[in-house]
Specification:
The chain is α+β, with helices and mostly antiparallel strands and about 350 residues long. It has 3 domains: about 110 residues, 2-Layer Sandwich (Beta-Lactamase); about 70 residues; about 150 residues, Histidine kinase-like ATPase, C-terminal domain (Heat Shock Protein 90, 2-Layer Sandwich). Helices cover about 40% and strands about 30% of the residues. The protein has a 6-stranded antiparallel beta sheet. Strands 8-10-11-13-12 form a 5-stranded mixed beta sheet. It has a two-stranded antiparallel ribbon with strand order 7-9. Strand 10 and strand 11 form a beta hairpin.
Length: about 350
């Protein structure tokens, strides 16, 4: 890697360099993450091959190349080759090399990314406030609950009639159930037991569990990036997080004529989680073909006790998010009828936030 390339890769803005024929001569790490591609695939490729429906994109580039005047556009919609639509602020600057050949430097800043960083910050703050309230409430519930359970045990010893003792057993059983519910509300409380693992080992373990639970009634499509490196994580807790997400997908897609879940893994460079920029993160998408999450539930889908199912507790996704956050990552959700996508990002680094 030369010095210029190394400097470009430290910049969080996507940088795309084009020659006079609008062919790619350089693409930094942030640009690769933004366009969901690699520099190796793009070098020598015409700019129209980088996105779908490139008419407006090419018009901007050609205009600057012909006029030799910089151009800036806000919130330009680009459809990636994967079909995903992103919105970016674009700055196109004409340049000339030492041999007098013209070219372009294109700066791409994801509007979606700025909105996501702001939204993640607000969400984390709201959830910290919510969890502080839940911890206080849990303390107030568990203390008298322990007294009720203890009193029921003492009463059971004094009752002469076995039929009456059944009532005390019900009190004890329900007290234990409420205690367990409060513990689940609090989410994971122990420190991470970090081991160096590959994310695919965890995904495969959960995939086998889901297949067994569903009686092989679900089709699970794997789309893994084999180049993802191992990284430190708590295997048991991360399995629980992925299992909660997958179970949610299974329950949502179970009503479909053909129940299908896609698990996709990718690496992303120069990616911001919360307010911290990471050199490399692991991205995992879990996509189901269920009916989708109602629009009124989507903003609070990770909040405790929020659920769209009559038999749901609303704790699975909240616990999954807590575990992902403990690993320094983030968990997001997008949903529309026929496709719900849960995406989590985990830093591929030796320490966690």
């Amino acid at each position: 890697m030369n010095l210029e390339s190394g400097i470009l890769d430290t910049i969080s803005t996507g940088i795309l360099v084009l020659d006079s024929e609008l062919k790619v001569t350089a693409l930094n790490a942030a640009g690769q993450a933004l366009l969901d591609t690699s520099e190796a695939r793009c070098i020598g490729v015409h700019a129209e091959k980088l996105v779908l429906n490139p008419q407006d994109w090419l018009e901007f580039l050609s205009q600057v190349l012909e006029s030799h005047s910089p151009h800036a556009s806000r919130s330009v919609a680009l459809t990636l080759l994967s079909g995903q639509e992103i919105h970016v602020d674009v700055i196109i600057t004409p340049v000339m090399d030492t041999d007098g050949n013209s070219g372009l430097v294109v700066e791409l800043m994801a509007v979606d990314r700025l909105l996501r960083i702001s939204r993640d910050g607000n969400l984390v703050h709201a959830q910290e406030t919510s969890r502080a309230m839940i911890r206080g409430l849990a303390h107030e519930i568990k203390n008298p609950l322990g007294g009720v359970r203890g009193a029921a045990q003492l009463l059971a010893r004094e009752l002469p009639n076995e039929e009456l003792a059944e009532y005390t057993r019900i009190i004890i059983r329900e007290a234990d159930r409420l205690r367990d519910l409060v513990d689940r509300l609090l989410g994971p409380t122990r420190q991470l037991d970090l081991q160096i693992l590959n994310i695919h080992e965890i995904l495969e373990h959960v995939r086998n569990l889901i297949l067994a639970e569903s009686g092989n009634r679900v089709t699970i499509v794997r789309d893994y990036d084999p180049s993802l490196p191992e990284f430190p994580c708590d295997r048991a807790q991360l399995i629980q997080a992925v299992l909660n997400i997958m179970r949610n997908a299974l329950q949502a897609a179970a009503d479909s004529n053909k129940c299908e879940i896609i698990i996709r893994s990718r690496s992303q460079r120069q990616f911001t989680v919360g307010t911290k920029l990471h050199r490399l993160v692991c991205r995992v998408d879990i996509i189901d073909n269920g009916p989708g999450i109602p629009a009124d539930l989507l903003p609070s889908v990770f909040a405790p006790m929020v659920t769209g199912r009559a038999d749901g507790t609303g704790l699975g996704l909240s616990i999954a998010q807590s575990i992902i956050h403990l690993h320094g990552g983030s968990l997001e959700c997008e949903s529309c009828p026929g496709e719900t996508r849960f995406t989590f990002y985990l830093p591929l680094e030796t320490n966690h936030a």
